[in-house]
Design brief:
By secondary structure, the protein is of the alpha+beta class. It is built from 14 helices and 21 strands.
Length: 437
């Protein structure tokens, strides 16, 4: 056994030679580690996809992202971000940037026909429940920041999509619409509520979708007046809610939530605008100005409010994360965080199981199934609070919100929904702190 001999030698070996030897051994270890590294195709470059790619890369895998859109999506809606999703973002080194692009909302305000405040509450309770680890930001900004952490480190294919999957023993043969055929060890669907991977590997969406009876729309406009900084302003009629939130650079987010029959949900921009015009045309407050802005926009986010409930999140070498696996609904407010949590846990379990994808997928689902089911139940209860279907329902919702001003009642009412009871697992990330090759 070599022994230290002063500060210049170890067992007769010069320190420099000993250090070089250790470095080469580490490099050899890394190369050996990478021999079992799996190639993983991830469909979707929104929230779950880049998060999964980051942690898979940290575990020694070679992820490839494929995204149907020609680039990262912009616009859309804002999200409230806290809890375990916030913790994962911190581990990814993103918190400073998230707080820089985010907003610290001060109030949710519900107004009447004349714009007078009828109910609302300050957001201090959220800060107290989350120890100040709470921020509101555009979903597209979170997606951009996540993607920046894997840009140049993971192969990314924009403007393409998976059109066929065929499992072949030790891999999956994938047909891309434009890039042709490729082969991967595993395929992960991180492609949202309307997941193509889920459709190809598990079956049509209707067998897994639970429609909650609402549609939601959102768009950004420039120069809208008035501006209420750091305040969500909402106006409601039976079965309809319309709201606005000020953004930087003189932009305003407009949000619409309304009751709709599933069969009546339109798919073209003109028909979507027409549906919103018909729903809010008789509305007071800022409705006329908002609808005027709506007519001028070319970018409108529009979708049904649904949940995805599946008996299993994997089949063979294909697995799902985020909304593709268990969408809790857009109105739940935690979809992005849950997408990041599921991506982190799936990557960690794949790393821990080494070459056993079946064991990894089973442990991933076992860790999260109960937690996600509880979130879905809470989201289903909460959906109706946005757009109660009757005037009595609106009045009761506003009454409940007014009670939030009573010390302690807000914590009692929403504390359980805000808190994350799931302990975030610690996994081994051998390449996390090392620069990209």
């Amino acid at each position: 056994m070599p022994e230290a001999n002063g500060s210049r030698e170890i067992g007769g070996w010069p320190i420099s030679a000993f250090t070089t030897c250790c470095t080469r051994l580490q490099d050899a270890s890394d190369r050996f580690y990478l021999t079992w590294m799996r190639t993983v195709l991830i469909a979707g470059a929104g929230i779950a996809g880049p998060t999964l790619a980051f942690w898979l890369k940290a575990a020694g895998f070679e992820p490839t992202l494929v995204e149907r859109a020609p680039g990262l999506r912009s616009g859309g809606y804002v999200i409230d971000f806290w809890g375990l999703g916030y913790d994962i973002a911190e581990r990814m080194g993103l918190i400073a940037e998230i707080n820089r692009v985010g907003y610290h909302v001060q109030e949710l305000r519900i107004v009447d026909d004349a714009g007078r405040r009828r109910a609302g509450f300050g957001t201090r309770v959220f800060s107290e429940l989350t120890d100040g680890r709470f921020v509101t930001l555009p979903r597209s900004e979170l997606s951009r920041l996540l993607f920046e952490r894997v840009k140049g480190r993971a192969e990314t294919v924009f403007g393409d999509e998976i059109v066929a999957l065929a499992e072949e023993g030790d891999g999956v043969r994938v047909q891309l619409k434009h890039a042709g055929e490729r082969r991967f060890d595993c395929v992960i669907g991180a492609d949202g509520l309307h997941s193509a991977v889920r459709r190809l590997a598990f079956g049509p969406q209707p067998q897994f979708e639970t429609y909650l009876g609402y549609v939601v729309a959102a768009c950004e406009v420039a120069g809208f007046r008035p501006r209420d900084e750091d305040v969500y302003v909402m106006y409601g009629q039976p079965g309809r809610m319309i709201g606005r939130f000020t953004l930087r650079d003189d932009r305003t987010l407009l949000l619409f939530v309304l009751v709709a029959d599933r069969a009546a949900v339109p798919t073209t921009l003109d028909r979507q605008k027409a549906m919103l015009q018909a729903a809010y045309g008789a509305g007071k407050w800022d409705c006329p100005k908002i609808l005027s802005e709506l007519e001028r926009t070319d970018e409108l986010y529009f979708d049904s409010v649904s949940q995805i409930r599946m008996p299993g999140w994997s089949r063979g070498r294909v697995a799902l994360v985020g909304d593709a696996a268990f969408c809790v609904s857009l109105l739940a407010g935690q979809g992005s965080a849950l997408a990041m949590i599921s991506a982190y846990v799936l990557a960690g379990e794949l790393a821990a199981a080494e070459s056993d994808h079946a064991r990894a997928f089973a442990r991933y689902e076992a860790r999260l199934r109960g937690y996600i089911s509880a979130k879905q139940r809470g989201a289903e209860r909460f959906a109706g609070a946005f757009a109660p279907k009757t005037r009595a329902g609106l009045a009761f919702r506003n009454l409940v919100i007014r009670t939030f001003a009573v010390p302690g009642l807000a914590k009692l009412a929403i504390g359980r929904e805000i808190a994350d009871a799931l302990p975030l697992p610690d996994y081994h990330w051998p390449l996390l702190a090392r620069p990209a090759a």
